[in-house]
Specification:
Largest sheet: 2 strands, antiparallel
Number of strands: 2
Strand order of the largest sheet: 1-2
Order of helices and strands: HHHHHHHEE
Length: 174
């Protein structure tokens, strides 16, 4: 959390209700915001310990009872992926250029690849096309293992991006 933003929007000695309001605005955990407030000197050691104890009693140490909004994504990564899509550069080609396998690139980008963009579904983007149907070992044709969803996450498999979370994908599907 940027120092200037936190100092400008959070009061010194913030109470739990103010921290819970601030967490929703910044899309961070309540404990992370509390730590940052203490780190910036907006909470004394005593205030930090008592606030952490109160948040823990409310269930915020191990989870976020009110849930978290959608995760923040990298604007730089989004711009890079959009530019690659516009130039029709396939995921496997981008991975090879970086000296990575498709699997390594997938691990680095998991949860960050956006599926909607200027070349969205149905507009010819190679990043958004489902894997082709292929005959498997049983002779049956494989169906697309995962359908696009609003999660915005994708797995790169060969030259295709498929949406996560996926059920188990047979190995004979690229």
């Amino acid at each position: 959390m940027p120092r200037v933003s936190v100092l400008g929007h959070m009061p010194a000695g913030a109470h739990v209700d103010q921290i819970l309001h601030g967490k929703r605005i910044r899309n961070v955990s309540a404990m992370a915001l509390t730590y940052r407030l203490h780190d910036l000197g907006l909470l004394s050691d005593w205030q930090y310990r008592s606030t952490c104890a109160e948040l823990s009693s409310l269930g915020y140490r191990s989870a976020e009872p009110q849930g978290m909004a959608q995760r923040e994504t990298s604007q730089v990564l989004t711009k890079i992926l959009t530019a690659l899509r516009a130039k029709h550069i396939r995921p496997s080609a981008a991975a090879a250029e970086l000296g990575l396998t498709s699997e390594e690139m997938n691990r680095l980008l998991f949860g960050l690849t956006l599926l909607d963009g200027p070349l969205g579904p149905g507009e010819g983007s190679p990043w958004l096309m489902p894997p082709p149907r292929r005959s498997g070992p049983s002779g049956r044709r494989a169906s697309t293992p995962c359908a696009p969803s609003s999660t915005g996450r994708a797995t790169i498999r060969g030259d295709h991006a498929i949406t996560e979370p996926c059920q188990s994908v047979p190995e004979w599907i690229p």
